[in-house]
Design a protein that fits this description.
Blueprint: H1 2-12, H2 30-58, H3 73-99, H4 112-139, H5 149-179, H6 182-186, H7 188-199, H8 216-235, H9 266-269, H10 272-276, E1 282-285, E2 291-293, H11 295-300, E3 304-311, E4 317-326, H12 327-333, E5 342-346, E6 355-358, H13 360-363, E7 369-374, E8 377-378, E9 388-390, E10 403-408
Length: 409
């Protein structure tokens, strides 16, 4: 009873800030909520689909063979994933601004369907905020938590999308009705009439959306413009034509060793001494003949070139010309059985991505190289000297650097 009395007083007392109706505005209507909801659903769905593809790339499943062509497919899907995630920030914030007074309605639950809907808002709002926040933090490589980003981002995405589907099912009729309302069909003329009505209810207009402020069309246009500006000022890390505008991009694709960025350098990986030692050998195990190659012996094998991209999960990417030995040629030296997957291991002593696995199609692809050169120059140590894996349509974290061992599985 005490809680009920407290809640009633906070939502009905005219002198308190959470009084029902205190934050009403002509911008907080079903039309604006419907448009923002549709935009957010489209952005979140695109993010989810492209993110699921990225997860399957990094955690291959037998039922989903990783495509090898086009070679830059992952570059496109991950770029879209990051761009739509960033673009959703103003849309999510605006959607919450429009609907948050409804969270304070009293009584909080009127019937069973209302209770189900409100419970569903917890994973929808909480999941949406978490996904956007954690995604932006990952782009900046800032991790103010101790749990796994990849695991939490993946599972919360499923939770959020499930809540989104349930919410769409519950609200589709209201959304359709709002989109078909006279104010949406007639545009500004009807909005101006709404201003007149709102002017007769001054007690309901105490927030920043007074009758002289933005129209609904102006409000939605501002949200769209904010999303566009955020996108343009970040995607330049991938699109050269927008590079000068990419003031918010966390990476400059033209800055770094040999003119290209890296996420993890040799010093951070703890491989500097092991990579430059004269005792280095590239071991090939699991075939009929164990193979151990020095750097000179590796360089003496027939070399091939491939134009392939490096695409990072944070959204930045670059394309370059790589030269090295085809992985299938090295496997042939070891007499590797056909149709077998391959594990590539790094000199890096520890780390979540010190190894990566290629299925037999990827391993035998004529563009899959143990690269020794980048754009005609010997690999810099931060790019993987003495050799690194480079293969078509793979996340950058799986393009293993400082390769020490190839194991036929």
């Amino acid at each position: 009873m005490i809680v009920k009395s407290w809640l009633r007083s906070w939502t009905t007392d005219p002198g308190l800030p959470l009084r029902q109706g205190r934050y009403r505005s002509r911008l907080r209507d079903e039309g604006a909520a419907a448009v923002l909801g549709i935009a957010l659903a489209a952005l979140f769905t695109t993010c989810f689909v492209t993110g699921l593809f990225s997860h399957l790339q990094q955690h291959p499943q037998s039922w989903f063979p990783i495509p090898r062509r086009p070679v830059g497919l992952y570059r496109v899907t991950q770029g879209v994933h990051v761009a739509t995630g960033i673009a959703s920030i103003p849309v999510l914030a605006s959607k919450l601004w429009v609907v948050w007074p409804r969270f304070l309605s009293y009584p909080p639950v009127r019937h069973v369907a209302d209770a189900v809907e409100r419970v569903g808002l917890l994973p929808l709002v909480g999941g949406g905020v978490f996904m956007v926040f954690s995604g932006v933090a990952n782009i900046a490589q800032w991790y103010p938590w101790r749990f796994s980003f990849t695991a939490s981002h993946f599972w919360v995405a499923w939770l959020t999308m499930g809540a989104l589907i349930a919410h769409v099912g519950a609200k589709w009729a209201v959304t359709w009705q709002a989109l078909r309302s006279p104010s949406m069909l007639r545009g500004e003329e009807e909005e101006e009439k709404g201003v007149g009505r709102a002017a007769r209810e001054p007690e309901n207009l105490v927030d920043d959306a007074a009758s002289t402020g933005l129209s609904r069309r102006g409000f939605l246009g501002t949200v769209a413009a904010a999303s566009g500006v955020l996108t343009v000022t970040t995607v330049g890390q991938t699109l050269p034509v927008l590079r000068r505008l990419a003031v918010l991009a966390p990476r400059d694709p033209a800055s770094g060793p040999q003119g290209y960025p890296v996420n993890r350098g040799a010093a951070n990986a703890g491989v500097v001494e092991r990579a430059v030692t004269q005792d280095y050998r590239l071991a090939v195990l699991g075939g009929r003949v164990p193979v151990s190659l020095t750097v000179d012996e590796l360089m003496a094998l027939p070399a091939h070139e491939a134009e392939l991209p490096i695409a990072c999960v944070e959204g930045w990417s670059f394309s370059a010309t790589w030269r090295g030995v085809r992985l299938r040629d090295v496997l042939a030296l070891a007499g590797a059985p056909p149709g077998r997957a391959v594990r590539v291991e790094s000199l890096e002593p520890a780390g979540a991505y010190r190894t990566s696995t290629l299925d037999h199609r990827q391993a035998m692809d004529d563009l899959t190289l143990l690269a020794t050169h980048l754009d005609g120059q010997r690999l810099a140590i931060d790019h993987g000297y003495p050799c690194r894996l480079i293969a078509p349509d793979r996340p950058g974290v799986l393009q293993t650097k400082w390769v020490s061992q190839v194991v036929v599985l």
